[in-house]
């Protein structure tokens, strides 16, 4: 094909040589060899120059653009890399535009793929978690219907077990609704001045029996006067403390201690929930906030856990403009901390 850099350079260089040769005819008394030597030199020099310029400034860029289109057409966006450009020519700009466009599309496709994967995983996890209490309750009810109902002792025992599984199912569905609303961004926080010590003592009352059964001591430590007002959604913050304190009780051995410490730090309140329980192995630490994630599936399951508690905690704390940090050592215990905004009446 003639229309490449060499072909164009050939045509242009020949034209320049002809024009210069013709111009030489206008100059009188030139030696004869000048009429062929000068056009030949001009032809050679022009050919090389034009070829180099066209090749590097024009055809190479066009080939890059073409290659980029080929990759986009084949959906092979992952191999497109940003091109380093040394000039601001229109071709460079077009190439940059195409790259930015392809890059945006690539991110969108990746995000959609990720979301589809999440959805599939979420559905699989939800069905798995729902299946267990439903099957258990179903089993007890059917055994009763098949005749066990006539035995008074078994009747009560099985009904209680079925009820316990259904209660667990109810709690699971509530947690699932909270997580899915939070992930969809559907929940608006109702920030109000909240007495954090009151919230904590309320939860101590609520969980006292569970802690006492394991001989676990619940303690609030603070240097501050009894009332500490923070700006928070009191119901949701209540949920954060319930989840963290019940984890601390659940994942502690007998006679442990759960300590909540509150410390004022400028305009913030530092909150720490610390236990001296079983701890979390380091390789699990960055995953425990994922929904349905449990360190020891069998142990957590035996305790009725579904792995939603900490993901709810994470969402709520983030909606309060902070993040949950966790420090843990196996056998020494774990400590979860975050910040809350102190309430200041102007
Ligand atoms: N204080 C803790 N000490 C040791 N391990 C913990 C502690 N808190 C959480 N974990 C580990 O992190 C996992 C995730 O905790 P999370 O609260 O999300 O789920 P769960 O307690 O299993 O179930 P759920 O809270 O939904 O009833 C737990 O299964 C447990 O293995
Ligand atoms: Mg939990």
What does the model show?
The chain is 59% helix and 13% strand. With 346 residues, the protein is α+β, with helices and mostly antiparallel strands. The chain folds into three domains: 5-107, no CATH class; 114-183, Helix Hairpins (Orthogonal Bundle), CATH 1.10.287.130; 192-341, Heat Shock Protein 90 (2-Layer Sandwich), CATH 3.30.565.10. It is elongated. The model has no long low-confidence stretch (mean pLDDT 89). Bound molecules: adenosine-5'-triphosphate (ATP) and magnesium ion. Residues 243, 247, 305, 309 line the site of magnesium ion.
Mean pLDDT: 89
Top-tier CATH class of the largest domain = Alpha Beta
- Global Rg: 37 Å
Q: What structural class results from the helix and strand content?
A: alpha+beta
Bound molecules: adenosine-5'-triphosphate, magnesium ion
Which strand order does the major sheet show?
Answer: 2-4-5-7-6
SSE blueprint:
Blueprint: H1 5-25, H2 32-73, H3 90-145, H4 152-183, E1 192-195, H5 196-213, E2 217-222, E3 229-232, H6 234-250, E4 257-265, E5 268-275, H7 297-302, H8 309-319, E6 325-329, E7 333-341
Parallel strand pairs: 2-4
Antiparallel strand pairs: 1-3, 4-5, 5-7, 6-7
Helix pairs in contact: 1-2, 2-3, 3-4, 4-8, 5-6, 6-8
Summarize the entry for a quick read.
The chain is α+β, with helices and mostly antiparallel strands and 346 residues long.
List keywords for this structure.
346 residues, Helix Hairpins, five-stranded mixed sheet, binds adenosine-5'-triphosphate, binds magnesium ion
